[in-house]
Design brief:
about 240 residues; globular; three-stranded antiparallel β-sheet; mainly alpha
Length: about 240
């Protein structure tokens, strides 16, 4: 008799685990950006796992991922702590790097503007709706508990940029831009938890959209350049305590 091979064991799917890690990452990120866990605070893996109702593994994985963004720092024998906000020099360097990467992508995307206009208009509409929701929820005497409305607005904001970056057709530029956007969370942490320029960003995105709708291939680059420069100015104004 020919011996039968043992039954093949199905491979464990990595998708649920990745989804769990991403959910934990988002939960910890919200704690960092809503002001409830200020810079310098300790992040205890065991406490976080109990609070979030998960094992320590996805918490540890999320913190390792978060360490790459600079939002948390790990110290030998002491564990993780919330990193200090970006300094003025770091803000400048971050925005300079974004300009290098994003303007290169915009130059390429402008050559095929007609192909991206539909997606860009839809992304802008979602950003406008998200910004209106933030304004509605935060128009009362105090801000709402949590960070979900701001997170939705920031996601819509970045989605607008991604439409343009991906239309540039260079996967390496896209990877670099997404890496820099992860660091942008520290800018939001540094400047009034990211509420400082939602209305301005919507207006500036409208100008970028209009530039892509024009027949001038240089207009989108200049509109994006103005947008990134304005973010840089606002971040330093808030950090310096200016109006």
């Amino acid at each position: 008799m020919t011996p039968q091979s043992p039954p093949t064991q199905p491979k464990t799917s990595v998708v649920p685990r990745r989804a769990l890690r991403d959910g934990v990452y988002d939960a910890i990120l919200e704690k960092l950006l809503d002001g409830s866990t200020p810079p310098g605070s300790s992040l205890n893996i065991d406490s976080l796992s109990r609070e979030l109702g998960v094992s320590q593994t996805p918490v540890r994985e999320a913190l390792v991922q978060m360490e790459h963004t600079g939002l948390v720092a790990r110290t030998a024998l002491k564990g993780y702590r919330v990193a200090p906000p970006l300094s003025a020099d770091q803000m400048t360097e971050l925005m300079d790097a974004r300009a290098v990467v994003e303007l290169a992508a915009v130059e390429r995307a402008a050559l095929r503007a007609a192909d991206l206009l539909s997606d860009l208009r839809a992304a802008h509409a979602r950003h406008v709706l998200a910004a209106h929701e933030v304004a509605r929820l935060r128009s009362g005497e105090g801000p709402p508990t949590g960070y979900a409305d701001l997170r939705e607005c920031f996601t819509a904001d970045w989605a607008f940029h991604l439409v343009i970056i991906r239309a540039g057709g260079n996967h390496f530029l896209t990877q670099m831009a997404e890496s820099l956007n992860a660091h942008a969370h520290r800018l939001r942490q540094s400047v009034d938890h990211g509420t400082f320029d939602i209305d301005q960003a919507v207006t500036e995105h409208a100008a970028i959209l209009a530039a892509f709708e024009s027949d001038d291939p240089t207009a989108p680059v200049e509109a994006m350049r103005a947008h990134l420069a304005a973010i840089d100015r606002r971040s330093h104004a808030e950090e310096d305590g200016e109006d």
